[in-house]
Amino acid sequence: MKINNLKIIPKDWIVEKYNHNLQINYKNKRPQNSPKKGIIISKFMFLDEHFYEGLGLFLGDADIHRIEKGHLTFCNKDKDICIFAKKWLEKYFLIDNDYLTILIQYKNDNPHLIEDWAKLLNFPKNRILKRYSSRHKNETMQLQVNSVVFRKYFEIILKESLEKNFRDNSLLRSAFLRGIFAAEGNIGIDYKEKKPYISQISFNLNINEKDLQEIICSILKKEGITFKIYKRLNKNSLEIIIQNWNNYWKLYNIKTFELCLRKKTNFNAILNELKVYPLISKELINFLFYKTNLTQKELAKKLNTYQGNISKISSGNMCLNLNQFNIIISHINLNKKLILNKIKALRIGNLTIIEDPRFKEFMFNQ
User: Fold this and answer.
1) How far apart are CA 83 and CA 301, in angstroms?
2) Fewest C-beta in 10 Å: which of 73, 74, 160, 165?
């Protein structure tokens, strides 16, 4: 999909051809006011995956809802996201360093703060500002595009791109969800307990962001992901809450966690520590035990469990975990692909059963 900028720019704006691009500006309502700083844009805005990924990110972390403002500001603490945001503006809106102001807010002293961020963002050191803030645990970048014309053009592009039927395209809607999750998504992990457990995955919005809520919910429905909405009126906030590993796995499959390295790392750390149990027949279990040529006592030692548990597994009253299953397969030197076809599903913990073959293949190839 693409947008022809000549068709969406307001008729009373000034549009001039600039090489293969367009230079746009608009007339001041009051002649005595100084002229606005025009911007150069492409003739066409191409709405691909990368575009919708960035659009979701900016809807979450930019001050788009502040319609009274004459510029656009983006704020984030993750350095990979900061790099992405700046490059996204360069690629799709042709915004270079001349249009930008960058402020780094910090709590802890860092003698190399300016140099580090200048190198990271490919931005002049002498133009990076810094400000102490007791509220910011981590260094946080605030990027501002200094152009009223850009702000108004961005709002036009935002409206046009959201009105497209991108939600019917699985790649585009997944990209949008990936962007908004990088900005407003949260993975509920209990770090105090230090257990591989996710209580919920959520999108945290302002209670007035009804249009954004509708977009997120409609995408989740199209992906078959169940959710519930919880409003905190005292905090003027709204949470779209997702639970159950069937849903988490669907989010993982559409690469929801890929844009933000910190959130991706947190999710993968839990995924790799899951207690997973293959659901296989009692007959197959006993066949595998028989092929080991080991006694129950020897099997218990090899599988790091009790001899009594081997009896329970043989009778179908207890399951092998994935690690134990792999140990047996390796011991008897069976073709793993043939055995995988015999596995009905995988159980996570005591309750959640996932039948998706992709999850089975993923877990066995870890």
Assistant:
1) 51
2) 165
> Treating both helix axes as pointing N-terminal to C-terminal, what angle do 79-93 and 113-121 enclose, rounded to 10 degrees?
40
What's at 260, amino acid-wise?
C
Tell me the pLDDT of the chain averaged across its residues: 91
Answer for the pair 267, 257: CB distance below 8 angstroms, yes or no. yes
Residue with tokens 């810094």: 130
Please report, as a single letter, which amino acid is at residue 115. E
Of 248, 259, 253, the residue nearest 184 (C-alpha): 259
pLDDT of residue 35: 54
Which run of H or of E encompasses 286? helix 282-292
Residue pLDDT, tens place only, 319-330 = 899 899 989 988
Which run of H or of E encompasses 205?
strand 198-206
pLDDT higher than threshold 70 for residue 194 = no
Q: Exposed (0-12), middle (13-18) or buried (19+): which is 333, by Cβ within 10 Å?
A: exposed
In this predicted model, which residue has the larger pLDDT, 49 or 358? 49
CB count in 10 Å sphere of residue 72: 25
Are 57 and 81 in contact by the 8 Å Cβ rule? The answer is: yes
Closest CA to 171 of 57, 254, 58: 254
Q: Is 48 left (phi over 0), alpha (psi -120 to 50) or beta?
A: beta
Structure tokens at 309: 């548990």
Strands of the 345-348 sheet, one edge to the other: 276-279, 345-348, 352-354
d(Cα 225, Cα 101) in Å, to the nearest integer?
Answer: 40
